[in-house]
């Protein structure tokens, strides 16, 4: 047993934490956070995540960093992947069931899906490439550039619904795959980042009250909405499908 240096509890499940070369003993993550986590230089909250470092000062988010420093600070983009254990389609139903029950011991994890902007795979990526897109990393998205520069959905809008659409190459779709306005108002070419389907969230843009949120996101003047992150409610499907059709503020 070891005694927690924060609360004094003598606990048989305590653990050691080494930070900056110093050894600490705690009985819970709560005590560890209270003892060693950094304070945000602006709002004073304890930072459980990585936070943002600017000129050797630490902030919990880019909103706080921008408030206290003149340095331009941008949030980083991420993407979510869904892994599953690799298995064989040659197994019968009983074998597959036992395979799952045993936890797929010894089988590797493989990516079967990814999540960035709403409906990119469903509306933009061609039918024969959807599986490859879902299982690949955003760093390889240049191989799918043709689908973004000349999306089939735009041609369907034009031929079936007689909606005029901009001609290819569709450079007006770049805000979906780069860090630029409206997600990053005022950003220049050097701030755009990689061309990839990533979930981008600018915490420097204040949230919109629920009563004022717009389903079309920034297309309806709600700059905190799609494609600036993804809300649990108010899906961005309408805004996403409207993009290939030419509904874009820079057209």
Describe the structure in your own words.
- This protein has helices at residues 29-36, 62-68, 93-101, 120-123, 130-135, 145-149, 152-161, 237-242, and strands spanning 2-3, 10-11, 15-19, 22-26, 52-54, 57-59, 80-85, 109-115.
- Mean pLDDT is 76; it is low at 100-104, 235-243 and 247-251.
- The N and C termini lie far apart (67 Å).
- It has eight helices and eight strands; from the N terminus they run ββββαββαβαβααααα.
- It has a two-stranded antiparallel sheet with strand order 1-2. The protein has a two-stranded antiparallel sheet with strand order 3-4.
- It has two domains: 2-68, no CATH class; 80-242, no CATH class.
- With 251 residues, the protein is of the alpha+beta class.
Helices, strands, pairings?
Blueprint lengths: L1 E2 L6 E2 L3 E5 L2 E5 L2 H8 L15 E3 L2 E3 L2 H7 L11 E6 L7 H9 L7 E7 L4 H4 L6 H6 L9 H5 L2 H10 L75 H6 L9
Antiparallel strand pairs: 1-2, 3-4, 5-6, 7-8
């Amino acid at each position: 047993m070891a005694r927690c240096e924060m609360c004094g509890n003598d606990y048989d499940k305590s653990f050691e934490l080494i930070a900056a070369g110093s050894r600490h003993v705690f009985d819970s993550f709560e005590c560890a956070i209270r003892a060693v986590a950094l304070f945000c230089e602006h709002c004073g909250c304890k930072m459980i995540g990585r936070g943002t470092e600017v000129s050797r000062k630490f902030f919990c988010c880019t909103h706080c960093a921008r408030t206290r420093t003149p340095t331009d600070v941008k949030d980083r983009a991420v993407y979510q992947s869904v892994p599953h254990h690799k298995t064989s389609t040659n197994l019968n139903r009983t074998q597959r069931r036992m395979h799952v029950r045993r936890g797929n011991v010894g089988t590797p994890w493989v990516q079967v899906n990814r999540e960035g902007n709403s409906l990119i795979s469903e509306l933009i990526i061609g039918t024969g490439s959807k599986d490859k897109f879902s299982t690949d990393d955003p760093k390889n998205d240049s191989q799918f550039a043709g689908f973004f520069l000349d999306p089939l959905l735009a041609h369907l809008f034009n031929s079936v619904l007689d909606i005029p659409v901009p001609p290819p190459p569709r450079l007006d779709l770049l805000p979906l795959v780069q860090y630029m306005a409206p997600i990053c108002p005022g950003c220049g070419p050097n701030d755009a980042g990689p061309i990839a389907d990533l979930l981008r969230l600018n915490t420097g843009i204040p949230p919109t009250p629920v009563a004022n949120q717009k389903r079309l996101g920034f297309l309806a003047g709600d700059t905190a909405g799609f494609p600036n992150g993804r809300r649990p409610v108010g899906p961005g499907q309408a805004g996403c499908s409207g993009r290939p059709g030419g509904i874009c503020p820079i057209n």
